[in-house]
Amino acid sequence: MAITRAECQALDARDPLRDVRDEFALPPGIVYLLGNSLGALPRRTPERVARTVETEWGVHMGASWNTAGWWDLPESTGDRIAPLIGAGPGQVLAGDSTSVNIFKAVTGALPLRPGRRVVVSDLDNFPTDRYVVQGAVAALGSYEIRDIGSGAGLAGLEDALGDDVALVLLSQVDYRTGALRDMAAVTRQVHEAGAIMIWDLCHSAGAVPVEVGEADLAVGCTYKYLNGGPGAPAYIYVAPRHQEAVRNVISGWHGHAAPFAFEPDYRPATGVRRFATGSPPVLSYAALNASLDIWERVDLREVRAKSQAMTSLFIELVDDAGTDLVLATPRDPERRGSQVSYRHPDGYPVVRALADRGVVGDFREPDVMRFGFAPLYLRYVDAYDAATALAEVLREDLWRDERYARRLTVT
Ligand SMILES: *Cc1c(COP(=O)(O)O)cnc(C)c1O
Q1: Atom of ligand 1 at shortest range from CA of 224
Q2: 71-295, CATH topology level
Q3: How many Å lie between the centroid of ligand 1 and the Cα of residue 383?
């Protein structure tokens, strides 16, 4: 192999992020390459959640809406997410799921382009993005969806754009292949066609230093690279120029201008707060904020440099092993997020056999094995061990064991 395990250990010793790993509670003997799906548990999260339960809820009870800042959690947490996506204070609201935020963003933004009736959607996007657009269009009536083809680059998008297009919704990083879109270039192209650009940042925030730039709206989740925990609040970004014009269709009391006036009619709050709807899941915000404490201390350029180095190392090692895997991720590190995907007709049993050897990745239909590299807690030696185990599972046909063939509910 091109690089030895000892050389990987030397890289770890020089890694400027090496101490950040200690902030995470990682089970022994596991190489966790699923941080792109559910991030690892920060060591301080349990005590933070326990404090919220035992003290804020158990002792101060309802007073905590004021004294512990519960009421303001969507904004205060959003302000802490903002630097991770290149946004400023008052531009990001944390809450709901990504799916719900996509609905709010799409239905809120469409009226900004009266007369235009087309929503451009990507066939390769994460299914919920497509499903929610389909639901929003069905609910609003008189809009239609124009799908861009598989893997369409800027040229494919150009063909779909026209003076009938109101809005384009795309993911910055493809959840299957890890391919990274040029956000600034795409946003410019969409704006030149007069349409609104909404970005889904689920696979990019925490994986690459995101710059929302000229984007109109953006959404993302916090349980992947951001390590907020299962079901952690998602977020929505609204560019300041749109904040007073965009309406939240799910106009609940938490987004009202004077929620405790208990007026009979809805009046939107100013700013991004109007995107709040109902009572926030306070315990989940506690977990997310424990994770954001870590993000506040790391340099995103170092995260990106380590992510590119680790994914390149993994690709080189798998290349050297001479397997029949087909790389689905761009080789150019500038064109990928923080995951490496391979196509293999028996990808599912291969992933299961790997998990039995302590290397945890996942599988996405029809034939994609995904390996996420979360730079905060993974080491170069983990990339080495994962590549070695993958090569062994394939070389020795270990995946052919019949117990790996049966699909579990979550793949
Ligand atoms: C993970 C992911 C989601 C998740 O949506 P939820 O509503 O949180 O389940 C949505 N879109 C993309 C692109 C994702 O990667």
Answers
A1: 1
A2: Aspartate Aminotransferase; domain 2 (3.40.640)
A3: 26
